[in-house]
Design a protein that fits this description.
45% of the residues lie in helices and 11% in strands. The chain is of the alpha/beta class. The protein folds into two domains: 364 residues, TIM Barrel (Alpha-Beta Barrel); 59 residues, no CATH class. The strands form four sheets. An eight-stranded parallel β-barrel has the order 5-6-7-8-10-12-13-14, surrounded by four helices. Strands 1-2 form a two-stranded parallel ribbon. The mean pLDDT is 97. The structure holds D-xylulose and cobalt (II) ion. D-xylulose binds next to loops.
Length: 443
């Protein structure tokens, strides 16, 4: 008997080229296309997220779910999880992504005890392993959901109740075991409830020390069981907490350095989290890259008019190009990749909509990559930026950079200078250059 199909009528999504109007075909993402000596598949390392794609129902604070998923039909949560994994791998294979990502509770339901939850996860990890071997799909990263269960309402690693911290540790241990068993290249910590709502009941200093201790224990356990990949912090300033401790890239880097975790941890930068922190995606990526800590990205986009995490599929080519210029400048992804932490709108109720959302985003990144590469390699952008700092390349400027000048020597240098002439930042020209390469599609 043929296996049940959750996406009947949809076959492997193929590349049809820029002239195609077929909503179920790639226009730019030809995974085999070689750009800059590497295939698009290897540059972009796309991953589909389990949570939005297979666990999301379209529910919002004003109403229940609108999306009916055939894999949710069984009433028993473990049976549901087994159907969900079949649907997920059918989707991953038909879309043609090389990677996926999950939270422990996306893959397997919580049981009635720590031991039962671990058993459920092990059952589903064994199934995932079989399916990975059958399809060639790989795990980009795993994580533990330490924010949905009511026990985590006051935080997980930063909970004021030690018993809850222990529960979080049990989940992280099992999720690390699962990630290692499935060959995950990274392991993510997103601290949605690691934060506070009022200082009146919060000892922030103590909570942050607990977070440092907790992450150190997780790092040590992971390394002990043979995890060689990157541990990643995913910064976000707020939502669901009023104030989250991993506010943005700079805050997270400072925290990791303070706790001696900067050799094992990098960052997973999410576009919509950057905008919630009043930064651009490019800014957050650059801060991470400059610290040597750009691990992976969660690709999505927010909405310009509201202030929450709408997790829409990324289609804005301009933002994508800006991000890819930084990512290419950092040498691309080592262990990480591009995870679509994005969901279809609750009004997009056809099963094919999930394909269409991913296809558009993958095309935008594939096209964006060629434009970003041309901007870096063919346009004068890089040269103009380097030239801007040329006064530090020799003479007193170089001495300054090398720490060979005192404040008095700087003062004396200034005193001898002829009147300064203005040096233009050329912003409009640079913006026009970006558009020129966008218009030309990277040629
Ligand atoms: C929430 C978010 C999470 C993390 C994984 O805003 O981005 O889904 O990516 O926990
Ligand atoms: Co995310």
């Amino acid at each position: 008997m043929a296996a049940k199909s959750y996406f009947p009528g949809i076959s492997r999504i193929s590349y049809e080229g820029a002239g195609s109007d077929n909503p179920l075909a790639f226009k730019y993402y030809d995974e085999k296309r070689i750009v800059g000596g590497k295939s698009l598949k290897d540059h972009l390392r796309f991953a589909v997220c389990y949570w939005h794609s297979f666990c999301g129902t379209g529910a919002d604070p004003f109403g229940p779910g609108t999306l009916q998923h055939a894999w949710d039909a069984p009433s028993d949560p473990l049976e549901q999880a087994k159907c969900r994994i079949d649907a997920a791998f059918e989707f991953f294979s038909k879309l043609g992504v090389p990677y996926y990502c999950f939270h422990d509770r996306d893959l397997a339901p919580e049981g009635s005890s720590v031991g039962k939850s671990e058993e459920n996860l092990q059952t589903l990890v064994a199934m995932a392993k079989e399916r990975q071997e059958a399809t060639g799909l790989r795990l980009l990263w795993g994580t533990a959901n330490l924010f949905s269960h009511p026990r985590y309402m006051n935080g997980a690693a930063t909970n004021p109740d030690f018993r809850v911290v222990a529960h979080a540790a049990a989940q992280v241990q099992a999720a690390l075991d699962a990630t290692v068993a499935l060959g995950g290249t990274s392991y993510v910590f997103w601290g949605g409830r690691e934060g506070y709502t009022t200082l009146l009941n919060t000892d922030m200093k103590r909570e942050l020390e607990h977070l440092g201790r907790f992450l150190t224990m997780a790092r040590d356990y992971g390394r002990k069981i043979g995890f060689r990949g990157d541990f990643l912090i995913e910064p976000k300033p707020m939502e669901p907490s009023k104030h989250q401790y991993d506010f943005d890239a700079a805050t997270s880097i400072g925290f990791l350095r303070q706790h001696g975790l900067d050799k094992d941890f990098k960052l997973n930068i999410e576009a919509n989290h950057a905008t919630l922190a009043s930064h651009t995606f490019g800014h957050e990526l650059q801060v991470a890259a400059d610290a040597g800590m750009l691990g992976s990205i969660d690709a999505n986009r927010g909405d310009g008019q509201n202030g929450w995490d709408t997790d829409q599929f990324p289609t804005n080519l301009y933002d994508i190009v800006e991000a890819l210029v930084v990512i290419l400048g950092a040498g691309g992804f080592a262990h990480g990749g591009i995870n679509f932490d994005a969901k279809v709108r609750r009004t997009s109720t056809d099963p094919e909509d999930l394909f269409i959302g991913h296809i558009g985003a993958m095309d935008a990144f594939a096209h964006g990559l060629e434009i970003a590469m041309a901007l870096r390699e063919k346009s004068p952008l890089g040269k103009i930026r380097t030239e801007r700092y040329k006064s530090f390349d020799s003479g007193r400027g170089k001495d300054f950079e090398q720490g060979a000048l005192t404040l008095r020597q700087l003062r004396d240098y200034a005193a001898d200078l002829p009147p300064l002439t203005a040096v233009s930042g050329k912003q409009e020209w640079l913006e026009n250059l970006v558009n020129q390469y966008l218009f030309r599609g990277g040629r």
